[in-house]
Amino acid sequence: xxxxxxxxxxxxxxxxxxxxxxxxxxxxxxxxxxxxxxxxxxxxxxxxxxxxxxxxxxxxxxxxxxxxxxxxxxxxxxxxxxxxxxxxxxxxxxxxxxxxxxxxxxxxxxxxxxxxxxxxxxxxxxxxxxxxxxxxxxxxxxxxxxxxxxxxxxxxxxxxxxxxxxxxxxxxxxxxxxxxxxxxxxxxxxxxxxxxxxxxxxxxxxxxxxxxxxxxxxxxxxxxxxxxxxxxxxxxxxxxxxxxxxxxxxxxxxxxxxxxxxxxxxxxxxxxxxxxxxxxxxxxxxxxxxxxxxxxxxxxxxxxxxxxxxxxxxxxxxxxxxxxxxxxxxxxxxxxxxxxxxxxxxxxxxxxxxxxxxxxxxxxxxxxxxxxxxxxxxxxxxxxxxxxxxxxxxxxxxxxxxxxxxxxxxxxxxxxxxxxxxxxxxxxxxxxxxxxxxxxxxxxxxxxxxxxxxxxxx
Length: 458
Known about the structure:
Low-confidence stretches: 1-8
Radius of gyration: 58 Å
Oligomer: single chain
Shape: rod-shaped
Number of strands: 16
CATH architecture of the largest domain: 3-Layer(aba) Sandwich
CATH topology of the largest domain: Rossmann fold
CATH class of the largest domain: Alpha Beta
Number of domains: 4
Mean pLDDT: 83
């Protein structure tokens, strides 16, 4: 007998027979199995469960007549919520493959759940199909929340953690929202009926319907959440006359109630944040506007003070102006009196000159005639002088009258008055308030008054 050299590939024996190596045989079996069973569901009892440091999970699925090895790769195992225990019945989805090193076939599991859950999933899918046919999942029928929710009804268990979380979040973000807790079972056989009744009671509560209904429940297994996959509950959520926010389970839990609700939040606390976030945004906006208003007010007051100070510096005291005008009148009177005196003196000098000339040229014979003529001339000169003096006095009186008319003192003499608040002259009734002290200057004397009433007007 001759030794045949090892070969990983097939060979041809004398007579045309094909000879396969173990590796080639295993590879062909692997290709046939994986091609014939690309995906399958399998149920069985778990045994020999092992999880080495690599993160992969190895187990055996068996029933009364046979067993098969199975593996869950680490990339899949970390998303499995709960690994099964020894002896537990499970339902798996996977693909068939061959572990070539041992020549054994095995199932690579990509989904695993306790046995019996599959029936629940099928039931949920059947409900989804019916509700989808009725259009309950359509985005067009979803209603938005009001801009500010002032009253919210919370349908949940009154003793669970969900109600405490919701009330805490609402109290922190929107303390002005009124919260009505409508108690209901959230799991178990009687839960669907109680949830439907609680939704109806929430919109018929005393004080009128709330602005929104918050349907809340903490996390749990698919069995725990089945009440929120109930068809009657889903239809009650869709029929609710006010928007419904669903916060059921944890972030990865999605129930039919979540799909039918107007808004879906990953947790009860997140649902409370959805309802109350507009309040927090409004409060932040009010704070911002108040700050801007205060800053604008301070800037306006500062600008007003600067304008007032500039106006105060440019304002002339009426008393000072009056004193200046009186001084000007006195100057004009003295000037006119000096002019009249000079004219009278000049006229007297001229008259004296004429008398001297007359006395020097008067002959004794012509003395009576000259005296008579002198008397006539003297009378004429006196009359002319009196006439000139009368005209000058009249002119002086006219100028003095004009000055008197222009004088603020004359204005005060006609019954007018000047009112001041402090050093500021008042021109508008809006510049004083009731109770302010006001000084009133009259033609003679001054009054110290208190404002009893103001009548602003044109």
